[in-house]
Amino acid sequence: MKTNDFPAYDLTALILAGGASSRMGTNKAFLQIGSESIIERIDRAVSPVASRVNIVANEKEKYQFLGRKVVSDHYVKQGPLAGLEAGLSSLETQWAFVAACDMPLVSTRLAETMYSFTSKRDVDVVLPVISGKHHPLFALYHQRILPKVRNCLEQGERRMFDVLKDVSVVEVDESSFIKSGWTEEDVLRSFFNMNHPEDFEKAKQWLADQK
């Protein structure tokens, strides 16, 4: 649902779902925080700024309840890069905001701030680098890099970082967000990555403290 506070942009949110989640022991997308699952939280956060939201998952039937378009990998068992290819192939917008289901503290404000960095000329990728850690699975990609993504997959290059070679990448760190009005604590929490059960418990506690 769109709000007056956040205009929808020429942007599709691609939520990457259905990963192995081996360290968590269960599918992160369906972990519950309060009355909603992680994937529902992310959907709710990104939908005010995205003109559409697509889910990238290979078990389509599990995600039909979201009422979103669900797209599956064309390159089977090739990891998250195949998910990026499937998502970019589904675009009807110039930009894709890729969000994996391991960052439960995503907010609408975060998505909008990241989109603001696309205003830099000829940028292909907006890549957050927070506390020295790159976040290629929580980044913005222009649809024109789709041929590059496909070429990497055809050549057996499956790492997300393989795509970042020879394209225009803008890296945004904590200082970039602070200049946009964020506090450092807000940035670090927003990019909190959830891989283990104890991480999930920490995320739930942080959200409870905000109420």
Automatic annotation (TrEMBL):
- CC per GO annotation: cytoplasm
**EC numbers:** 2.7.7.77
Bilayer-crossing residues are: none
Broadest EC class assigned to this enzyme: transferase
Looking up Gene3D superfamilies in the UniProt record yields:
Spore Coat Polysaccharide Biosynthesis Protein SpsA, Chain A
Binding residues for Mg(2+): D102
- UniProt cofactor(s): Mg(2+)
Chain sites annotated for binding GTP: L16, A17, G18, K28, D73, D102
Tell me if GTP-binding is a UniProt keyword of this record. yes
Q: Which family is it part of?
A: Belongs to the MobA family.
What's the protein called, per UniProt?
A: Probable molybdenum cofactor guanylyltransferase
Q: Which organism is it from?
A: Texcoconibacillus texcoconensis
Q: Quote the gene name from the UniProt entry.
A: mobA
